[in-house]
Design goal:
Layout: H1 6-16, E1 21-23, E2 45-47, H2 52-65, E3 69-72, E4 89-92, E5 99-103, E6 108-112, H3 117-126, E7 129-130, H4 143-148, H5 156-159, H6 162-165, E8 166-172, E9 178-181, H7 195-198, E10 207-214, E11 216-217, E12 222-229, H8 232-245, E13 250-257, H9 258-264, E14 280-287, H10 294-308, E15 313-316, H11 320-331, H12 333-339, E16 343-349, H13 355-369, E17 374-379, E18 385-391, H14 397-414, H15 432-435, H16 438-451
Parallel strand pairs: 2-4, 3-4
Antiparallel strand pairs: 1-2, 5-6, 6-10, 7-11, 8-9, 8-10, 12-14, 12-15, 13-14, 13-17, 16-18, 17-18
Helix pairs in contact: 1-2, 13-14
Bound molecules: flavin-adenine dinucleotide.
């Protein structure tokens, strides 16, 4: 394999300069694995470029040597896309970090791809704006990773996925060519908008080195409530009615089904927020603005739903502490991997009209898997996106395959998607055909072949591995 050759290391080292190329025991463990839960595996070589030009030189060299490359951002990905395989060269964007510009007239922010999302959010806030991208991994994930996975998260219903927030990109192609369109304008129909192709391509088509984001006005007068519903149908009725009653104000609608709340509020866990155990708890937030009466309108609107019987109960945050407590129910999930038995995790979309059916099917079919099988379900339901974990104390690979068959079977029956926001990576690659037709996959292959004919960029992610694609 060319990647273990001293020639490659020497050429990379000579081209990039001292301290940016590592191999063997010098490669830190943080570059051995992403957050997908696959066993750690060291890359053969680690390169940490500081500039676009260095990324370009590195790719040109790897391409010439036919050396497979894995692109690494903050390593928080849940599909295994940044996880090294075989003897890959890892190109980490960690040293390409920083906000380059905030244009307060255009309302845009330009950042290097390795900048942590939290830093982007803080810089936008400091300049009086708001970043439309937010997710639980904000402290570690990078803006380049968010763009490459077309990340979703907590406020998609108002600001869209990463794609809707990106105005411009700089990308390095597999052969080292640099494509730059640091566009700041909402309108630019000068030919194909190639930038869109790279958003959500999971590092298989090019390396994102710079990102221009469109910023939003800061949401003001944010009101938070934790709401108890007797049924998913009631929650969706409230979601639709909120669109009408508080147009454009809703920013968060995060649902947690009763199995999720049972774990969160189980032995040693958090206090139950409601005396009864509702079918569904929803954390909702609305930006009510600075004008007087915003908070009252929010409360009155929810009060109306209570009177109508659409809501079983509701708690409204009176302080930042209350708001943080409400969020901790939603963020408790990050502890689940530690406290629950092993299992399989799914990030699926189901049309809203069939989501209640999907949860009912999960209940029946999980019970049929065995006496100890259990599941939890929660998610960004306003975007049709639920996260499902199916677990069993005796979990093993064969059981994992049965869990996949069950969940993806439901997805297929109800016309959903196997990946709502985390991407395909390596974990979901064998299932791509369940959500994309053969002609669609063939077009993906042709795009990959055109942009990366040597198949050096993230091979085996999204599309099957192979010498040629
Ligand atoms: C606690 C937690 C909460 C999460 N919540 C959400 C959520 O709500 N919504 C959501 O969508 N995701 C979520 N994720 C998943 C993950 O955070 C996102 O996929 C995120 O966008 C990945 O960013 P990253 O910088 O960590 O990328 P990495 O994990 O390093 O890489 C992810 C993929 O992008 C590629 N890549 C990374 N950087 C670049 C680049 N500069 N150019 C080209 N390709 C690149 C990698 O090769 C890989 O295929 C969560 C993860 C965790 C651990």
């Amino acid at each position: 394999m060319p990647t273990n050759s001293h020639t490659l290391i020497e050429e990379l080292d000579g081209s990039l300069g001292p301290g940016l190329v590592r191999s063997g025991a010098d490669i830190p463990q943080r570059n051995w694995q992403d957050a997908a839960g696959i066993d750690p595996h060291p890359p053969a070589i680690l390169v940490m470029p500081r500039s676009t030009e260095q990324v370009a030189r590195c790719l040109e060299i790897c391409n010439r040597h036919g050396a497979a490359v894995v692109v690494q951002g903050g390593m928080t990905g849940l599909a295994g896309g940044a996880h090294p395989q075989g003897r890959e060269v890892a190109i980490s964007l960690e040293r390409m970090s920083g906000i380059e510009e905030i244009d307060t007239i255009s309302g845009t922010l330009t950042a290097l791809a390795g900048t942590p999302l939290a830093e982007v959010q803080a810089a936008a806030a400091e300049a009086g704006f708001f970043c439309g991208i937010d997710l639980g991994a904000r402290g570690s994930c990078t803006i380049g990773g968010n763009v490459s996975t077309n990340a979703g998260g907590n406020q998609v219903l108002r600001y869209g996925m990463a794609r809707r927030n990106v105005l411009g990109l700089e990308v390095v192609l597999a052969d080292g060519r640099v494509l730059t369109s640091l566009n700041k304008m909402l309108k630019n129909n000068a030919g194909y908008d190639w930038t869109q192709l790279f958003i959500g391509s999971e590092g298989t088509l090019g390396i994102v080195t710079r990102v221009v984001l469109g910023l939003h006005p800061k949401p003001r007068g944010v009101q938070s409530a934790l709401c108890a519903f007797a049924s998913f149908e009631d929650a969706i009725t409230v979601l639709r009615r909120l669109d009408d009653a508080l147009p454009g104000r809703l920013i968060v609608f995060e649902a947690m089904w009763r199995e999720y709340m049972d774990v969160t509020c189980g032995p040693g866990g958090m206090a139950r927020p409601f005396t009864d155990e509702p079918e569904l708890v929803v954390l909702l937030e609305a930006a009510m603005g600075d004008a007087e009466g915003g908070a009252d309108l929010f409360e009155e609107t929810l009060g109306g739903f209570l009177e109508e019987g659409l809501l079983v109960d509701a708690l409204i945050a009176r302080s930042e502490n209350d708001r943080a407590r409400f969020w901790s129910y939603r963020e408790a999930v990050y502890e689940f991997r530690r406290i629950l038995p092993k299992g399989s995790h799914f990030d699926i979309s189901i049309p809203l009209s069939r989501l209640a059916e999907a949860v009912a099917m999960l209940r029946t079919r999980t019970a049929a898997l065995g006496p100890d099988a259990a599941f939890i379900v929660f998610g960004h339901v306003a975007d049709s996106n639920i996260h499902v974990s199916v677990r069993d104390p005796a979990y093993d690979a064969a059981m994992g395959a049965r869990f996949e068959e069950m969940v993806y079977g439901i997805v297929a029956e109800l016309g959903g998607s196997i990946s709502a926001e985390h991407g395909i990576g390596v974990l979901k690659r064998p299932h791509l055909g369940k959500s994309r037709s053969a002609p669609e996959i063939e077009v993906m292959r042709q795009i990959k072949q055109t942009l990366d004919p040597g198949n050096i960029l993230n091979p085996g992610r999204v599309l099957p591995r192979g010498e040629r694609v």
